[in-house]
Amino acid sequence: MMLDTLKTVLAPFGPTGNECAVAETVKKLLEGQVDSMRTDVMGNLIVEKKGEEGGKKLMFSAHMDHIALVVADIEETGYLRLTPAGGVGIDMTVGHHVVFGNGVHGVVMRQPTKGETAAMQHMFADIGASSKEEALTMVKLGDACVYAPDCFPLGQHRVASPAMDDRCACALLVELLLSADRPRNTIVAVFSTQEEVGLRGATTAAYQVDPDWGVGIDVTAWGDTPEVKLPAVKLGEGAAIKFMDRSMIATPCVRDALIAAAEKAGVPYQREVLPFGGTDGAAIQHARGGIPAGTLSIPCRYVHSACEVIDMRDMDSALAILKEFVNGTY
């Protein structure tokens, strides 16, 4: 079930700032299974499942958007010049297949740099057009493309795909809502927008929801491939409970409640100290006068690439932790 949900939410086109197809997919998965669903002006999908009277209001935020490349100019020869929306890396992108929302396909390449340091200005997309006029019949300035969908298994437990950051957390949040039968605490699940360009959707959503506690759900980096040792997080050893990253130090009461939930559920978990990056958890923590917040992370190799890799055992661990967490007494 979890794998099927994951594949479903990985499929839609959803560059940062244009996540509506992802939101519609999530709505269909949750239809008739929750108490309310609404979309706000930022495009956040806000879903509620009511808990018992006297319980806390818990906000969970998983972002729907995917890093993208936006058409900034079209050359007379038909090649597209690109600008990034989110953390697009040159080395991760050269030679990759991309797709636009209207179905136009392209290949991203880099021109010879002649001694210069390679930069985004040297990147271009080839969509098969031989002139600017032909290219303009296929795409327009401002159109965004993303790594083309390509979900495939790696061994027995692992799955690779573009957009795993953060659609795997969206799938996790869907499964939590479907499985949480009469939770002790009210669940407000935010499927947020524009995380990759500054936690924008979660910032406005947290202000609206005004939860008692909040939890960001996102991927984290890996420390288990050759010459990569930090963060001290490995695939297949459980979901990671964040202590800190560059955007936040997790509120101790929320962090410790997540640890207690993991121990009560009897599932493996890891303690995460990330020396960079940030998540929707920080946006929640900074909202209004401050909200106690933490983050639950899915270890993910090759983040912001066309082949982001997760381990489904970590997804199962994360779901077990969240199910205990929403039924806790705080």
How is this fold's topology laid out?
Blueprint: H1 2-10, H2 20-30, E1 36-39, E2 45-49, E3 57-63, E4 68-74, E5 80-85, H3 90-93, E6 97-100, E7 105-110, E8 123-126, H4 132-136, E9 144-147, E10 152-154, E11 158-161, H5 164-179, E12 186-192, H6 200-209, E13 213-220, E14 239-244, H7 252-265, E15 269-273, H8 280-286, E16 293-299, E17 308-311, H9 312-325
Parallel strand pairs: 3-12, 3-13, 13-16, 14-15
Antiparallel strand pairs: 1-2, 2-12, 4-5, 4-9, 5-8, 6-7, 6-9, 7-8, 10-11, 11-17, 14-16
Helix pairs in contact: 1-2, 1-5, 5-9, 6-8, 7-9
The count of helical stretches stands at 9
Number of structurally distinct domains: 2
Please state roughly what percent of the residues sit in beta strands, choosing from under 5%, 5-15%, 15-25%, 25-35%, 35-45% or over 45%.
25-35%
Task: Work out the number of β strands.
Answer: 17
CATH architecture classification of the largest domain: 3-Layer(aba) Sandwich
CATH topology of the largest domain: Aminopeptidase
Distance between the termini: 30 Å
By helix and strand content, what is the structural category?
alpha+beta
H/E element string?
Answer: HHEEEEEHEEEHEEEHEHEEHEHEEH
Radius of gyration: 20 Å
Looking at this structure, what is the CATH superfamily of the largest domain? Zn peptidases
Low-confidence stretches: none
Name the helicity range: 25-40%
